[in-house]
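Example record for the data management plan.
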Amino acid sequence: MQFHRVKPLDLILQTAEKKALKRQLGAFQLTMLGIGAIIGTGIFVLTAEAGQKAGPGMMIAFVIAAVVCALAALAYAELASMVPVSGSAYTYTYAVLGEVLAWVVGWALVLEYAVAAGAVAVGWSGYMNGLLISAGMPLPEMLRTGPMDGGSFNLLAFIISLVVTGLLVIGTSKSAKVNAVLVAIKIVALIAFIGVAVPAVQDVNFEPFLPAGWGSPMGGIGVLGAAASIFFAYVGFDAVSTAAEETKNPNRNIPIGLIGSLAVCTVFYMLVSYGAVGAVGSQPVLGADGVPLHPGSAELAAACAGSEALVCSKEPLAHVLRLLGFASLGNAIGLAAALALPSVILMMIYGQTRIFFVMSRDGLLPERLSKVHPKFHTPHVITLLTGVFVSLFAAMFPVGVLADISNSGTLFAFIMVAIGVMILRVQQPDRPRPFRTPFVWVVAPLAVMGCLLLFLNLSMYTISMFLGWTVIGLLVYYAYGHRHSHLAKP
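Corresponding structural encoding:
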């Protein structure tokens, strides 16, 4: 019965050895890849959205999201060190909970990686279009945004997605070196912002601290609603685990990359959010009923017309510095974001291709997708297909609710990983664990509850989209995957 097809850990490791990727990444490169995947649209763009949902209370939202991510990271670190192959949550679920749930997780990870990559590409194009306009070289308005944003085709988002795809086809080590430079640019930009904004903090800007309260399930507003959205700012740390098969000494380096990148980013986020809120304020725009208007809504767009409020800005960090009288530095922050955001697109597409690679190697997707390039040692077929999909997606759709849709798939995958850790502790207690989750019977259940809490505080629209995507995935699985799976054959 398909629901009970479980691929043993030893068989997963054996399969990986037959068609393996070249091991070439160390602990430092993994940490840089993790930071590159984490620091991006979440902090450079979604700070305004979090402010609109929770006001100054978004600082609490950052803490809540960081705690949930830390709990999930500890679970990820144990499984990634035990199973140092590509595939992330998909592979771990396959080994513990069976093929059907593994497929659902792999399908959900499309939301985490491909949808997120498209969203970041759209965010990047916004910064670049702003720079081109300020330089007097604007693109035609119809080429700045997709149809749903009033344009026809987001040309810059389309181009950057294809450029990143080409870089990934050439080789992982080359893309990792470029990524390290981009990570450095982002860190310098955030340090500059912190250095200017934190000294300008005023207590009056924190009042009222919770203008929208804590929120309610499926409402998408309030501190918990902001935490569910700002979770996107931390998404990406688990992409480190998808690189396990290309990592030197993965039993040591994967936990370092996971926890190290998350710790560095959390410190930056707390300082940045404190500086942004305290320096210029972040009170939400309220509707006639006194409730904050939903980000991305036509009502908010109308209310924000001509407004200088932080929650109305498409480039909040640069906007804060301009309001403080540092226009040139604000423009520099905008340029840094435009230079650095491609590293996030890179890691999102990278993670998606590696998951598809492993699903293909298991027979759940056509085998030709897992073909490895003889010169570059990369899965070039699936990389190109994923890149084309992301580029078209970015060209046609707005950022809008994409971050929340991406979060829904991510949170579901994290829940499965935490459950898998607990099941393996019972089923295979003696299996070597180079990294052991501390206080696992406290940490893992808290990770499940934390992820479920954030999931339920996404909007009803987002949850409905996730359920619809899951149904489509199950139809695809039963049309192809369950008959062609290697576990279905003698």
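Summary line stored alongside the record: The radius of gyration is 22 Å.
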